[in-house]
Specification:
This protein is α/β, with parallel strands linked by helices. Bound molecules: zinc ion (ZN).
């Protein structure tokens, strides 16, 4: 038994605890003593205070009420209005998961209903939200987790042993080192290896979808050995940050992935979509749904501001990054106060339709690793309000002349922002009630948004929780689920707005719509996200109007002539130059060193020199395969 468990048990009266183990960094104790379960007289709290680790006391599976009776009892206790859909028991862990549309009503005032369930059945209730828009993917993920609950229990216990059983590599001089395997002076394939004497942790594991020759991170770097990897942290779901993760499982990694629950769900969806796109393009997918499932089995979800040990000397906390649903800044505490870092990944330091601005306050901070997608002096975005007006104008004009508006977007983030914006315009009577077609994956990701409203900003939460008015459920939004429906919209439908992936016109339905809509002057194409060099979107946006799509067998080019009007609206989930500088200046405490990444070469360097000059902070902009010793 682990030393830490021995220590805990020595502080509890003999015979009270029947079993003890780990669930990741959480320590779980089981008791057969009913009275001790309901009232341990503050003993557990005292231990938590002294060892500073999370401990949960659960009833031993031997003493809980039998399944059938418990289910009946739970259904009787929970009010009808809660919209309960499922009750799933996890008998080995004495837990019962209740799915309901209104979790608040299952919890009750100050948790009174939960308490009643515990008292009458002894099961420990966990409440999960049933999304109001049905989402097959969330259901799929939940069933993978339930089907593998036995494996999962063992995996979490093993993870706990890795964290608590002390140092396997031996305590040496303390140091902290970062190696850029991807995302150094470029946008895409973010992947950084964090090493300490004890730990090997990856921060993100992305791909670069716009550039085949630089698609994957440098896992062949001498520092990286997959068999030594302790943990992976995924900042957010975009493929540039998560797209290579299932590949690690293909090559035998079986350790944990840490991220928020929306990140887990959205990235699984994006990975499945990537496999589909590769197959459609006649390529061999780099992984399959088996590896994506394996990834889900090993994912440990964290809420914002939940402090968690992930190895003996690394402790992380995720904070809101304001960039997309579930996106996180990763605060990393190394050793016992040795060094504190924040890895921002992609961040938005400004309020958006969906999210609160990125967090700036941290308990401690010495090194800040910040993105620079829009890091150059001239990357200043016009005010969001202006852009909202512009979008309104584009939509109104296009609809008036009987055209269609095509908006290629990333599946997540911008698409939902645009939906909220259009919904508000319709609500306020500023544009006619027109159908807004939300294609395939954008629809699924919207459904995931409805499952995690607690990650959205105050305004939307208020609308959803207090006014029961969820903008995502507006009838103007219509799901497009098949190629046949897509064809109907293109051929017969009148004026409308189409929101579809991919955002850079690299595969996905947006390209299908473009092929059908590009020739008609009445239609409009609106770019609303970053267009990476090499992508079709980038070429059209910079002004190319005759694009060779392919060659026929005789070598004759098939040219697409773009006649539709092309616009760009500059609203982004990234911070612009001003916001990045503001962010650095508002970071509290102020970092002693700033490392700039995730930006084109010149933008990284420009931001680095400006931060250095303006704030007198040491800066560095590493290239891929460079390492930095931060302590
Ligand atoms: Zn992103």
């Amino acid at each position: 038994m682990s030393e830490i468990l021995k220590e805990i048990l020595s502080k509890i009266p003999e015979g009270k605890i029947s079993d003890a183990g780990f669930e990741g960094a959480n320590i779980v104790l089981y008791t057969k003593d009913k009275d001790f379960f309901f009232d341990n007289k503050g003993i557990i709290k005292e231990i938590v205070n002294s060892i500073k680790k999370r401990i949960e006391l659960r009833p031993d599976p031997a003493i809980v009420l039998e399944l059938e009776k418990s289910e009946k009892m739970i259904k009787k206790i929970i009010p009808k209005e809660a919209g309960m859909s499922d009750v799933i028991f996890d008998p080995q862990r004495s837990r019962v998961v209740v799915h309901a549309e209104k979790p608040g009503l299952v919890i009750g005032k100050q948790g009174e209903i939960l308490r009643e369930i515990r008292e009458k059945t002894l099961w420990v209730p966990i409440i999960k939200r049933t999304p109001p828009l049905r989402c097959k993917l969330i259901e799929g993920i939940r069933s993978v987790l339930y089907e593998n609950s036995d494996y999962r229990r063992k995996f979490l216990n093993k993870t706990g042993h890795r964290i608590y059983d002390g140092w396997i590599r031996g305590k040496k001089n303390e140091w902290v080192r970062l190696s850029y395997l991807g995302g150094g002076r470029q946008v895409g394939r973010s992947c950084i290896l964090l090493q300490t004497p004890e730990s090997r942790v990856l921060l993100d594991c992305g791909i670069n979808i716009a550039n085949d020759s630089e698609a994957y991170p440098f896992l062949e770097a001498p520092e990286f050995k997959i068999e030594e990897l302790d943990a992976v942290i995924i900042s957010h779901a975009h493929l540039g940050h998560s797209g290579f993760l299932p590949y690690l499982y293909k090559f035998g990694y079986r350790g944990p992935v840490y991220c928020t629950a929306p990140t887990r769900d959205i990235m699984s969806l994006l990975h499945l979509d990537l496999v589909k796109i590769m197959r459609n393009e006649g390529k061999d997918p780099i992984y399959t749904s088996d590896e994506i499932k394996e990834m889900v089995k090993h994912t440990i979800c964290l809420g914002y501001e939940e402090v968690t040990d992930i190895t003996p000397d690394v402790r992380i906390t995720l904070y809101n990054a304001g960039h997309m649903l579930g996106s996180s800044l990763v605060h990393i505490h190394v050793g016992n106060g040795l060094h504190n870092m924040v890895y921002t990944a992609d961040l938005k330091y400004g309020k958006t339709m969906l999210l609160e601005p990125a967090e700036t306050k941290f308990p401690r901070l010495e090194t800040l690793m910040i993105e620079s997608t829009y890091g150059a002096r001239d990357n200043v975005m016009p005010p969001a309000k202006e852009q909202d007006e512009l979008l309104k104008e584009i939509i109104t004009n296009t609809l008036k002349r009987g055209g269609k508006v095509l908006m290629p977007t990333l599946g997540s983030g911008r698409a939902q922002e645009v939906m909220i914006l259009i919904e508000a315009l319709v609500q306020e009577g500023k544009i006619d009630t027109i159908p807004v077609y939300v294609d395939g994956m954008v629809w699924d990701i919207t459904a995931i948004h409805t499952a995690y409203p607690e990650f959205l900003n105050r305004n939307i939460r208020k609308q959803i929780f207090h006014k029961d008015n969820n903008p995502f459920l507006s009838p103007i939004f219509k799901e497009v689920g098949s190629a046949k429906e897509r064809k109907q919209i293109i051929e017969s439908g009148g004026p409308c707005v189409v929101i579809a992936t991919s955002g850079m016109l690299v595969g996905g339905p947006s390209v299908e719509y473009l092929k059908a809509l590009h020739g008609d002057k009445k239609n409009s194409l609106v770019f609303s996200c970053y267009q990476a060099e090499g992508s079709l979107g980038h070429r059209i946006r910079r002004g190319d109007r005759e694009i060779v799509m392919s060659h026929d067998p005789s070598g004759r080019p098939d040219v697409m002539k773009i006649n539709m009007e092309v616009f760009k609206i500059e609203i982004t989930g990234h911070s612009d130059r001003k916001e990045l500088m503001n962010y650095v200046s508002r970071c509290n405490p102020r970092p002693k060193k700033v490392i700039i990444n995730h930006g084109e070469n010149s933008r990284c360097l420009d931001l680095a020199s400006s931060i250095h000059r303006q704030f007198r902070i040491e800066t560095q902009a590493p290239r891929n395969l460079e390492s930095i010793r931060v302590k």
